[in-house]
């Protein structure tokens, strides 16, 4: 138990600076941030509400969409409330426990988000390559088990990050030049040796995302092979159209994630305020766009959403 003793930091409070160099513009910056946050919550909660209310939507594809919405809500809620408190009320203090908790939920949500995208690729593979066996292979119970597996993977992979940081002393510097407790940003202000933290964070990031991208690429490789065997051009388009929404969501999620993590770790020549804005974009752009993409591209969901919106 002594390995994870927090005696160095129990009484300490970190200071989140927001966006350094742009403190005078925090109120103006909060306007798009708050708008994006509201759109994110409305979009994702609407998806959860509609799928929960409509019996016809309670099938694997839409259950996976609900899981994606839950990870999006987790990511946004772990970052945006504190960021808005900094921008609006200058409430920059955060306890060590609060900082590590925020870090865990943000990175666990991100890891679970990636795992759900892999599961959605599997869903599309079975739907296109094994359509006659779809209902027997991907039952609701099996989807629930896959969702639990995604959650457990996220917890097991991310829990070491705050546990490793909790062992480090934080001497005189408690100022975090960020809007939230990102793992590497907190590690950098420690006065201990953070080599293990850096290596674990980097290896886990590329291992998780690399493995997930490989599995997705494998699924879509098999899908393309199956589609090319179909003689009808109309059938080609119909098969590929079922993947359009998932491909769009993957592009927004992985592109923004890889760009944010690479620039944050290796973009020493990039101004700090630009790095922080890019990191924040990852935490709210994909969660905001995902329900919009599925709402536009998925006919069943679009019709049900339209029905409830018209009732308001």
Keyword list:
312 residues; mainly alpha; three-stranded mixed beta sheet; 12 helices; 75% helix
In terms of topology, how is this protein built?
Layout: E1 13-16, H1 26-53, H2 60-89, E2 93-95, H3 96-129, H4 134-137, H5 140-158, H6 160-166, E3 175-176, H7 183-188, H8 195-228, H9 233-241, H10 244-266, H11 272-297, H12 299-311
Helix pairs in contact: 1-2, 1-11, 1-12, 2-3, 2-5, 2-11, 3-5, 3-6, 3-8, 3-10, 10-11, 11-12
SSE order, one letter for each helix or strand: EHHEHHHHEHHHHHH
Biggest sheet: strand arrangement: 2-1-3
Rg, nearest Å? 21 Å
Structural shape: globular
Unreliably modeled segments? 1-11
**End-to-end distance, in Å?**
54 Å
Walkthrough of the structure:
- With 312 residues, the chain is mostly helical.
- The protein has helices spanning 26-53, 60-89, 96-129, 134-137, 140-158, 160-166, 183-188, 195-228, 233-241, 244-266, 272-297, 299-311; strands at residues 13-16, 93-95, 175-176.
- Strands 2-1-3 form a 3-stranded mixed sheet.
- The chain is globular and about 65 Å long.
- Residues 1-11 have low confidence and may be disordered.
Overview in brief:
This protein is mainly alpha-helical. It is built from 12 helices and 3 strands, in the order βααβααααβαααααα.
